[in-house]
Design a protein that fits this description.
It is a single chain. The chain has helices at residues 4-20, 25-35, 42-62, 87-90, 95-110, 134-138, 169-179, 181-186, 188-201, 203-209, 233-237, 244-260, 271-280, 289-312, 360-374, and strands spanning 139-145, 151-157, 163-165, 319-326, 332-339, 345-353. It is mostly helical.
Length: 376
């Protein structure tokens, strides 16, 4: 258990980072190592993960993604746990130890060893969501006291223990499919279910299969002040709304334009660009940038990955290559590529080593996973 001095020192570093956003990840990790010297301490693992999460959020905010800063880990005295999944555990464990016990229990459930309900259960009132929904399996849900003593709902990733305020199924799936390496490496069944769900919800798959129920709802335009003009003849004869299929098609073309042409995401909010899109498709409502890219990146990546695996499954004599470089935050980024005998190369995986040494063994572990996942 952390002392008051240790906890205060780490929390001060957390709030100092939020204020200045100038610390490097390696400095934050070193501070945790110096403050908590026990390598096997659960608190040390929590704070190491938290510092890495801080830098992840900083990079996302720098890219224009409006995400909330993560809260610092709570001490055992600050955590008030109420969960229906493991009532017998609540009496003996708390904090990270409780989550680890529930995590092991959840793993047994997915392997079919025991039958235990998910973290969130349907109350049975109204339609609600199914008890066995994918989001339920991906998180551990708790109620914790915030700084004002008020109970708030928080979720922890079932694999990497990432803490998030509230419970947004869309963000849960995006984290599981895009960012959680622990889920990908150690929870293969759950990770494959996540990728399959994201693939089914992608615009590409929906347009190819005609499954319109998986398409997102129509964009809503912001309320504007009514003008006195009567409009043009073109506006009169145009349909009042675009269909779901039309919106999905335009969304997909817009997404491909930004990704394949390396256009900054901020352009989507530019008034002149929005005027251009409105002129080309008068009744299409340009989506909000913060929600548009995060959703489509996760879904279209899952769709593309499924197609790529299918394409490579019939190939032989493939070559796996890699390349790497460093970022300003001292992170090591490596990309892995598969090349066919006809010299057609495909980017198959990107891996970031945060605050760790890049050794031959570490690279081999990632290369083996790429070979197992993409070249079974």
């Amino acid at each position: 258990m952390l002392s008051t001095e240790q906890n205060g020192k780490l929390r001060a570093a957390h709030f100092e980072f939020l204020k200045t956003q100038s610390a490097e990840l390696i400095d934050l990790l070193r501070l945790v190592e110096e403050t908590i010297t026990d390598n096997n301490s659960l608190e040390r693992k929590e704070w190491m993960d938290h510092m890495g999460c801080l830098c992840d959020v900083w990079e996302r905010r720098e890219a224009g993604d409006h995400v909330a800063w993560p809260d610092p880990p709570l001490t055992d005295e600050e955590v008030k746990v109420t969960t229906p999944s493991a009532p017998s555990l609540n009496k003996k464990l708390s904090g990270y130890a409780l989550r680890e016990a529930m995590r092991n229990q959840r793993r047994a459930v997915l392997e079919g060893a025991v039958e235990v309900g998910p973290a969130r259960q349907s109350s049975g009132k109204g339609p609600g969501r199914g008890q066995n929904s994918l989001a339920d399996d991906l998180v551990l849900e708790f109620k914790e006291a915030d700084g004002n003593g008020k109970d708030i709902k928080v979720t922890y990733c079932v694999a990497c223990d990432r803490r998030t305020s509230g419970r947004d199924p869309r963000r849960i799936l995006e984290h599981a499919g895009l960012k959680c390496e622990v889920l990908r490496n150690q929870w293969t069944t759950l990770y494959n279910r996540t990728c399959n769900e994201l693939n089914l919800n992608s615009n590409s798959t929906a347009l190819e299969t005609g499954q319109t129920k998986n398409l997102p709802k129509l964009h809503k335009s912001a309320p504007e002040k009514e003008e006195s003009h009567r409009g043009t003849l073109l506006e009169h004869f145009n349909a009042t709304k675009v269909s779901k299929q039309q919106q999905a098609h335009i969304d997909l073309l817009l997404f491909k334009f930004f990704i394949c042409c390396a256009v900054p995401f901020a352009v989507l909010d530019n008034r002149f660009f929005r005027d251009l899109i409105t002129g080309l498709a008068m009744n299409y409502v340009v989506p909000d940038r913060s929600a548009f890219f995060t959703r489509h990146i996760a879904q279209e990546l899952a769709s593309f990955t499924a197609k790529l695996i299918g394409h490579l499954s019939n190939k032989t004599n493939l070559t796996l290559s890699l390349d790497g470089w460093s970022t300003r935050a001292k992170d090591e980024i490596y990309t892995f590529h598969t090349t066919t005998p006809h010299r057609c190369a495909f980017f198959v995986e990107g891996h970031i080593f945060k605050g760790v040494s890049v050794t031959a063994e570490a690279l081999l572990d990632v290369a083996n996973w790429v070979r197992f996942y993409f070249l079974p």
